[in-house]
Design goal:
single chain, alpha/beta, 5-stranded mixed β-sheet
């Protein structure tokens, strides 16, 4: 297998509207750390697959489609989901990507993928998985265990050549009051790993299924110092995992023979690289919450002086107000790929962590799940979560069972490949 990595900067001029928070006090006023697009490409001599990760709040389907056409190969475009970047049309159910970002992000993706292809060389692959403590936790349930899975794909050409990290934690350390552009937690992890691994080792960080996971109950502040602390915690854990046993995924040399893809599934199938996509229509969520009741609950929490209760009550109110009306069915693409011995699932929007764990529960085969890929239907809560009036459920555009349908579709597609 030949693997390459490339990146391209994504400049954000001062005065740019920022995404992620309803109550942002104004547009961007400067730069805390640069945004970029990272791309990793895999080639088996007959097929090429590219994963690009952009430091933006979301990727809508129009952007994903244009970027794929510009790349000239099978491409998944994932958002890091930073809440300190430009607004790219992040609304529940998805929408059009505003100019100039449709063109600028597409151009950056094209540049990053081209550089990755030019850098391709024979490499081996190894998978590592372990628990990450005290970085992310269920953001709507104070006191929930602060433990999440951490997936690493190490690319080696003798020594370590590169590392793909999949971190299922919302990159929302910096607050709504922040007006400095930043890749937030994703950028902090990249920087920490580069300091640790050296400039000769490339690092790409993707956000996993982080719909219900954030640093809300683990962070000690909301500034760049806290970003660095959390970034170092993740880097420390990555180093521990890399020092232990991993699972071989592919060899440096591959002699895959092309074969026909499964009936009814788009993509190319070879013994080295294959992929598939299936289109689903998700039924709309029913609106049952009472805005007046949620507003009264927020006012009671604020009067109590309890900051955690106030924040949670406010988020529930914001969730209901974020939902578009009237609700309509939502179309989404479920994407899977096989890269040697690695099974990869790219889910749209913001799936809850339990959704990804359902996809990844495939004994005997390393399976890594990414969120925020090739479309933004919004939050994808588990069916059980709809019994709780939480922000993610109130903001969701889709009916209970939608996330489970996506998970089962991903599992089916991987089996069919």
């Amino acid at each position: 297998m030949r693997v390459g990595h490339g990146s391209a900067e994504l400049p954000v001029p001062d005065g740019t509207p920022m995404g992620g928070y309803i109550d942002r006090p104004g547009p961007s006023t400067g730069l805390a750390d640069p945004l970029s697009v990272s791309a990793v490409t895999w080639s088996d001599g007959g097929s090429r697959f590219a994963l690009a990760i952009a430091d933006v709040i979301c990727v809508n389907e129009d952007l994903a489609g244009r970027a794929r056409r510009a790349a000239g190969c099978e491409l998944w475009l994932a958002a890091s989901h930073t809440h300190a970047g430009p607004e790219t049309g992040c609304v529940p159910g998805g929408g059009p990507t505003p100019e100039p970002w449709l063109d600028r992000i597409t151009e950056a993706v094209h540049t990053a993928v081209r550089r990755a292809i030019e850098a391709e060389r024979p490499c081996e692959g190894m998978a590592y998985r372990g628990e990450l403590h005290e970085v992310g936790a269920d953001r709507s349930r104070p006191g929930a265990p602060a433990v999440v899975p951490l997936d690493l794909i190490a690319v080696r050409d003798g020594g370590l050549a590169g590392l793909l990290v999949v971190l299922p934690v919302h990159p929302t350390v910096l607050p709504a009051a922040n007006r400095l552009v930043s890749a937030d937690l994703v950028g902090a992890v990249r920087a920490s790993l580069r300091r640790r691994l050296g400039e000769d080792v490339w690092v790409a960080v993707a956000t996993g299924a982080a719909g219900d996971i954030s640093t809300r109950h683990t962070r000690r502040g909301q500034d760049t110092a806290e970003l660095r602390r959390l970034g170092e915690l993740v880097a420390d854990r990555c180093a521990e995992l890399l020092a232990g046993p991993g699972t071989p995924l592919w060899q440096a040399a591959s002699t895959g023979i092309a074969s026909a893809g499964p009936t009814g599934i788009s993509g190319a199938a070879t013994t080295g690289i294959s992929w598939a996509t299936r289109r689903l229509t998700l039924e709309p969520a029913a609106t049952t919450a009472d805005e007046a009741a949620l507003l009264a609950g927020y006012e009671r929490a604020a009067a109590s002086g309890d900051p955690v209760a106030t924040r949670l009550a406010r988020s529930r109110l914001e969730g209901l107000r974020a939902r578009t009306a009237p609700p309509v069915p939502t179309g989404v693409d479920v994407n899977v790929a096989r890269l040697g011995g690695l099974a990869l699932a790219g889910l749209p929007g913001e799936p809850f962590l339990a959704v990804a764990e359902r996809v990844a529960d495939r004994p005997g085969e390393p399976t890594v799940v990414l969120g925020y890929v090739n479309g933004y239907p919004g939050y994808l809560p588990t069916a059980a979560a709809y019994r709780r009036a939480e922000y993610e459920v109130l903001a969701s555009q889709v009916a209970p069972g939608s996330a489970e349908l996506i998970a089962e579709t991903a599992r089916t597609l991987l089996e069919e490949l």
